[in-house]
Specification:
Elements: E1 15-19, E2 25-29, H1 41-50, E3 55-60, E4 66-70, H2 71-87, E5 96-98, H3 104-115, E6 120-122, H4 125-129, H5 135-144, E7 148-153, H6 158-162, E8 169-174, H7 182-186, H8 192-199, E9 206-211, E10 221-225, H9 226-239, E11 249-252, H10 259-271, E12 275-278, H11 288-297, E13 302-305, H12 307-319, H13 321-328, E14 333-336, H14 343-357, E15 363-368, E16 375-378, E17 388-392, E18 397-402, E19 408-413, H15 425-430, E20 442-447, E21 450-456, E22 461-462, E23 468-469, H16 471-481, E24 485-491, E25 498-504, H17 506-513, H18 527-541, E26 550-556, H19 575-579, E27 585-591, E28 594-598
Parallel strand pairs: 3-12, 5-6, 5-7, 7-8, 11-12, 13-14, 14-15, 25-26
Antiparallel strand pairs: 1-2, 2-18, 3-4, 9-10, 15-16, 16-17, 17-21, 18-19, 19-20, 20-21, 22-23, 24-25, 26-27, 27-28
Helix pairs in contact: 1-2, 2-3, 9-10, 11-13, 12-13, 12-14, 12-17, 13-14
């Protein structure tokens, strides 16, 4: 008999609904938000006092072995680095810019800066290592005016740091001047200035400046305060009460330049005395093997990932029973965020968990943004529809404003919401309504079990027939019907039909077709792939109207040399980057009742 693992795992949802005269709806948790620390630094100091020898973070060393740092060691490093940063003139007005990715050194620098009230601005590694003109790095440099920049390897990031115009200090783990090395910083003797700076931190003190993806222009700097981060973790502790008794263990690759990895996951470990094993892999062909090796070493208690990650992980678990047993050995729940998890993928995860453990392992999720630090809702209950994003967290007020069809624009207010964008009052004013609700531009629809995510309002479009296409729903349906696709972009505005550009999932192609079809020049001539996708498109379109039926599909195989810089902060394939590599493709045209066919030159 399956064990009900949700008893004691989730707090029961209790939501208050109020309907307004203008048709809008307010949703709030009936459970008040409990008190929370003033600053994120309190978590580190508390656990260093309670259990100084507990491991906070670990990473692979050059020899492949795990290098671990305890809470006591991290507190000592944070105090020393905090003093060193003050000595070098950093302050609330002169933040610390971090260009390199997840590492023990990155975390030491982040905690050191926060200890003395210096904001940290972590930036996507791709901006430094994948850019030729470093335009975004320069724009961020001009906006933030950092007092110093931290990079893991000064030589590897030399081109990026050379593009900075403000001539900040370059701090590094290796490759830079010894006087500004991480080792020198950690050897600094902390003085009374550290305690004085720590005492000045309030909930309004800026902890981070996080940058959005900048896909439509220069990235925006989201001001992230200590109150936002601390309130959000308290919200999660109240709906996941097991965190009060069980210290989480994560194996996580999600970049700290993004709110999911850097705020949600890192802070959940810190707030609850857990351990974070830094996964040096990625959901990309050349790197995913590293993630699998890490899962074989460490059994996590929580799994945090994005759809692109689970699309790679599920086939690997299905084909390797020993790996699946390691993965699920201590697993309390599997969590997806950043985009809707295709229903078929969610079902396969549930089946795997039950088959391996003999119990139900919940596959759940939430909804949030960089501007909300990040979670605003949580599905802390059993649900059937994979689009479910749950109900408001304690302390959060959700406002639903009627939009197109049966959808609502979702707006949010609470202590976890940003005060605005760094040095951009114009952008700040544009994203808040007259009542102070943040407007992220997402669409939802009410259901019996919470809210259903319906996609980005700005992404939806009309066909020439006047029919609205809900892009998020079409994308999720396509990926669920055709798991061989890793990701897809939906198009067709002002056209007569819906089109899609998609990428092959190598793991699924290997499982379903026996391997990724070989390319002949720029085209893949694969009757087997065409037949497989033809059946998927026919299934998808059988009962769908024109706004939900994909009639033109262009498939690109993921390049074998895809690396970490080509995975965006949300875990999607960086489409612009991959397109420039002229990856082999196969084009399918579906027009009912004509079956799909390969289009060749």
């Amino acid at each position: 008999m399956a064990v009900d693992t949700q008893v004691g795992l989730f707090a029961p949802p209790r939501t208050v609904r109020r309907e307004l005269a203008d048709g809008a709806v307010l949703l709030e948790s009936a459970v008040p938000l409990e008190s929370y620390p003033t600053s994120t630094v309190e978590w580190l100091r508390t656990w260093a006092d309670v259990d100084p020898d507990a491991v906070l973070v670990a990473e692979r060393g050059p020899d492949g072995a795990w290098r671990r740092r305890t809470y006591g060691e991290m507190l000592a490093a944070a105090n020393a680095i905090g003093q060193a940063l003050l000595d070098r003139g950093l302050s609330a007005e002169r933040p610390l810019l971090v260009l390199s990715g997840n590492s023990v050194g990155h975390l030491e620098m982040m905690l050191g800066a926060m200890t003395v009230g210096v904001p940290v601005a972590p930036v996507s590694v791709a901006y430094s290592l994948q850019s030729r003109d470093h335009a975004r790095i320069r724009a961020i440099d001009e906006l933030v005016a950092p007092g110093a920049v931290y990079v893991e390897d000064a030589e590897a990031f030399g081109a990026a740091t050379a593009a900075l115009t403000g001539t900040p200090l370059i701090l590094s783990s290796v490759g830079g001047p010894e006087e500004h090395s991480l080792a020198t910083l950690k050897a600094t003797e902390p003085g009374t200035a550290v305690d004085a700076a720590l005492a000045r931190i309030t909930g309004d003190t800026v902890a981070k400046i996080l940058f959005t993806s900048g896909s439509t222009g220069n990235p925006k700097g989201v001001v992230t305060t200590h109150r936002m981060l601390c309130a959000n973790q308290q919200m999660m502790r109240q709906v996941w009460p097991f965190l009060r008794e069980e210290r989480p263990v994560l194996v996580d690759w999600l970049p700290w330049s993004h709110t999911f990895g850097g705020n949600h996951n890192v802070n959940m470990v810190l707030a609850n005395g857990g351990t974070l094993y830094i996964d040096d892999g990625r959901p990309a062909p050349a790197l995913f093997g590293r993630s699998l090796a890490n899962y074989r070493d460490v059994s996590p208690t929580l799994s945090f990932n994005v759809p692109a990650g689970y699309a790679q992980l599920v086939p690997a678990l299905e084909q390797d029973r020993e790996l699946a047993e390691r993965f699920f050995a201590r697993m309390r729940l599997v969590f997806n965020a950043a985009a809707a998890l295709p229903p078929v993928l969610r079902s396969r995860l549930e089946v795997l968990g039950r088959a391996v453990t003999g119990r139900d392992v919940p596959v759940t999720g939430s909804w949030g943004t960089t501007e909300t630090a990040p979670a605003s809702t949580s599905a802390h209950f059993d649900f059937g529809d994979a689009r479910c994003i749950g109900v408001p967290l304690p302390g959060v007020t959700i406002k639903l404003v009627p939009a197109e069809d049966d959808t609502y624009e979702i707006r949010v207010r609470g202590p976890h919401v940003t005060p605005g964008y760094h040095h951009r009052p114009d952008l700040t004013e544009a994203v808040f309504d007259e009542e102070g609700f943040y407007r992220p531009g997402d669409a939802v629809s009410p259901a019996d079990t919470g809210l259903l995510f319906r996609g980005r309002i700005a992404e939806d479009f009309k066909l020439t027939t006047g029919t609205f296409v809900h892009v998020g729903a079409v994308r999720t349906a396509l990926l669920s019907t055709a798991p061989i696709l890793a990701d897809a972009v939906i198009a067709g505005e002002n056209r007569g039909y819906v089109s899609a550009l998609a990428w092959l999932n190598p793991a699924e192609a290997d499982r379903l077709l026996g391997g990724v079809p070989a390319a002949d020049g720029e085209l893949v001539h694969s009757a087997e792939l065409a037949e497989h996708l033809a059946q998927a498109l026919a299934t998808l379109g059988a009962e769908a109207g024109s706004a939900a039926r994909v009639q033109r599909l262009l498939i690109m195989s993921t390049p074998a040399n895809l690396d970490a810089g080509e995975i965006t902060d949300k875990g999607y394939v960086n489409q612009r980057r991959v397109l420039t590599q002229r990856a082999p493709l196969v084009e399918l045209l579906y027009t009912d009742p004509v079956p799909p066919q390969i289009i060749t030159p």
